[in-house]
Amino acid sequence: MNLETNKVTVKKSQKEMFEFLSNVENFEQIMPENTDKFEAKEDSFLFALKGMPEIRLKIEETTPSEKIVLGSTSDKFPFTLTGNIISIDDDNSEVQLLFDGKFNPMMAMMIKNPIQKFISTLSENIEKL
Known about the structure:
- The protein is an alpha+beta fold.
- The protein has helices at residues 14-22, 27-30, 105-127, and strands at 2-4, 8-10, 35-41, 44-49, 55-63, 67-72, 79-89, 92-101.
């Protein structure tokens, strides 16, 4: 299941945006309002939204200033969340989030809308930075 957000423009350079997303503690600033729990450690963070199970995301891959890939640490909920960062000019960049999950068709149908809403909220909150 592949989902993506619209590209959003941020008043941060490509490098600044990459550094922001590379620090997992910063994800607390862009999480949805219905976040029940958030705990960050070195290269991962755990979060829970109201009525949803806890999920831990860990930095799996980075391409300096261009891309950061977070992966779920759960075998039951295998997915990656990729942030692509494109430079517009010295002070502005564009960010797009891509979700790639490996779920059976029934599970995909059940979680598609909540996941799309979640990544869209992340993207909207990134735009406000």
